Amino acid sequence: MDHPERGGVTVLESADPAAVPRPRAEPEPASRWARALSGAGYRAPRRTPLDEQLVPPMPDGPGVTPDVVPPSPLLARLGIRLPDALWSWLCRWSGWLGPIAVAAFAGVLRFVNLGGPHALIFDETYYAKDAYALWQVGYETNWADDANGLITAPNPTVPFRTDPAYIVHPPVGKWIIGLGEQIYGMNPFGWRFMMAVLGTLSVLMLARIGRRLFRSTLLGCVAGLLMSVDGLHFVLSRTAILDLVVMFWFLAAFGLLLIDRDRTRALIAKRLDAGLGTDWWQLGLRPYRLAAGVSLGLMTATKWSGGPAIAVFVLLVAFWDTSARRMVGGIRGPGGQPIAEGLRILRHCVDWVCSAATLGLTAAVTYLVSWTGWIMSSTEPGKGGYFRDWAVQHPGGFGPDWWRSLWHYHSTMLDFHTNLHSPHTYQSNPWSWLLLGRPVSFFYESPKNGQAGCTTSDCAREVLAIGTPLLWWAGIAALLYCLYRWLMRRDWRAGALLAALAAGYLPWFQYQERTIFLFYAVCFVPFLVLAVTMMIGAMLGPAHASPDRRLAGATGAGLLVVGIMWNFLYFYPIFTGQTIPMPDWNGRMWLSTWI
Q1: C-alpha to C-alpha distance for 450 and 456, rounded to whole angstroms
Q2: Torsions phi, psi for 462 (to 5 deg)
Q3: Average pLDDT, whole number, for the chain?
Q4: Tens of pLDDT along 282-321?
C-alpha cells in the first residue's frame, strides 16, 4: 500500500494469515499423462454445459446481441462516432449484413462485362443451345453446323430445329441456364446470367454456412471473401456450363443439413430440460433435411457426379444423430429412464433408416420429376425427346412405356460416361487437381497490333479455368490441418468438411482412364475454402489467448488473405479474357503444364 505520510514508500503491512483467502486449488488431473502435462503448464479446457455442447451459442443476432451495445473502442480511436441506436442495430444484424456485403462484392466481380467474350466458349456450345431447346419444346434438339456463327453474329438469328438430340446429362442445369435466356435473350449475357446469379448466391450461402459452422461472423465473412476471389469459381460463375450448378446444390444441401443439425439438437436440449425422452419420433418434422434431399436430387439431376454426395450425406447425418444421443447419455424413454440395449440398437437403426429415407428417397423423387419435360413429350418418332419412342418400338416388359424408355436412355448414358476415353488437350488426372497441374483453356485468341485492343506486336486473350493458386496451395495445408483436427481432436466440423470434400473429389479417382477435367473440382471448392477458413481461425487463436499471440495470429492470417486477393487480381486478366501483351501472358503461366 502507498502511505503518503511515509514519503510515498510502498510498505507491505503484516496481516492475519487467517484473513487472507487462499488461492483456489486447481482440480487434480484425472490421468497420469494429464498430471505430467500439468507440470509443464497444461490446463484442461473448461467443461462446457451439455446444452452448449449440443448447440453452441451464435456470436450475434436478435436474442443474442444486447439491445444496447457499448461503442467500439476501435472506431473511437479512429475518430468515428456512430449513433448508439445505429451501432447497436449494426451489431445485432452483422450476421446478415457482413455476408450480404461480401456477396455484393462477389456479384460485382461476376456481372462486370459478363457478356464477354462474345462467343460460345468451350462447352457453352452444347449447354446454351440445349437450354434454349428445353424452354421451347421440353427436350434437347439438334442444331445446324453453322448455328454458333449465326447466334453470335452482329445481326444474330437462332436456327432452332425440333428433331431430338442425344444428350448425356440430366436437364436441371440446362433449365436454369435457359431461364436467363428467356429473360435476356439468346446471347452471351443471357446464357451466363443465371450462372453469375448462382455464383453470387453461393458466396452468400458460404458466408452464412461458415458463420454457423465456426460460430463466428468474422470467419464466415472470410470464407465468403475467399470464395469470391477463387479463380475457378469465378470463371465457372461467368460460363454457361453445368458444374457450377452442381456446386450450388451441393453447398445448399450441406447448409440445410447444418441447420437441421442445430435445430434437432436444440429440440433434444429442450426435451432434456423438460425431463422427457429423446426418441427420434418426438422431435417432429425435419423440413430442412427434406429440403436438403431436394437439393441433392437437383444436384444429381444436373450431373450424375452428384450421386456420391447422397450416400455420404446419408452417413454423415446418421452419425450426427447418433453422436447427439450418445452425448446426452444414450436414448432414453419417457421420464428420462434408460431403455433396454436391444431397443436402443433398434432406435439407432431407425435413425439410419430415416436418414436414408428422407435424403435418398427425396433426392430420387426430385431427380425423376426433373425429367418431366422429356416424359411429357410426344412418343411419335422424331417428335419427342430422344429415345422417348423406344418403348413403343419395343413393346413388352415391365412398367409403363415412359419408364421403360427412360430406363433404356439411362443405360446408354451410363455406357457413355463409363467408356469416355477420347483424348483431349486439356484433360487432367485428379491426382493433380489440388496442385492445379492442368487447367482448362475455355477461350484463346492471339490478336495482333491494332486488333481487340492490342497495342504491341503480339498479344494474348484467354479465359483460363484455374483456381487462385495461393488459395488452393494453402488449401492443401488446410486439409492436413482438418485431418489432424478430426483424428486427434475429434472435431466434428473438420470431419464434416472432409466428408463433403471426399464426396465431390474421391469418386473421380476410379476413372483413371476417363477423360476428365480440372473444372469438375469446382463442386468441392466451397469445402476447400472452409478448410482454409478453419485454419485461419486457428491462426487467429482462441479468444482467451494473450494479446501478443492474437496479434501475431491476426498478422499471419491477414497476410494470407491479402496474398490470396492479390493473387486473384494478378490472374484477373486471364480469368476474364482481357487482351494483354504476350510477355504479360507468359508471366502468368507459372507452370509449363498451364500452356
Answers
A1: 8
A2: -140, 150
A3: 87
A4: 567 789 999 999 999 999 999 999 999 999 999 999 889 8
Q: Provide the residue type at 524 as one letter.
A: F
Q: What is the pLDDT of residues 531-544, one digit of tens each?
A: 999 999 999 988 88
DSSP code per residue over 462-476: EEEE---HHHHHHHH
Partners of 461 in the β-ladder: 445, 579
CA 561 remoteness from chain centre: 18
Q: Which backbone phi and psi does 445 adopt, to 5 degrees?
A: -140, 155
- More confident: 472 or 78: 472
CA distances from 119 to 183, 558, 579 (A): 19, 39, 15
- Give the count of beta carbons closer than 10 Å to the beta carbon of residue 247: 28
What's the pTM? 0.89
Coil vs helix vs strand at 338: strand
Per DSSP, helices labelled H in 419-524 are 469-489, 492-505
- Per residue in 261-276, pLDDT (tens digit) is 999 888 888 877 776 6
Q: List, in order, residues 6 or more apart from 581 with CB less than 8 Å away.
A: 454, 455, 456, 458, 459, 460
Q: CA-based Rg of the chain, rounded to a whole angstrom?
A: 29
Three-class SS of residue 563?
helix
* Local structure of residue 84 (DSSP, 8 states): H
Q: Measure the CA–CA gap between 29 and 434, rounded to whole angstroms.
A: 43
Domain boundaries, the chain: 241-331+339-359, 389-419, 425-594
Pull the grid cell for residue 301. Answer: 439431376
What single-letter amino acid sits at 39?
G
Distance between terminal CA atoms of the chain?
A: 75
CB 464 within 8 A of CB 590: no
pLDDT of residue 22: 44
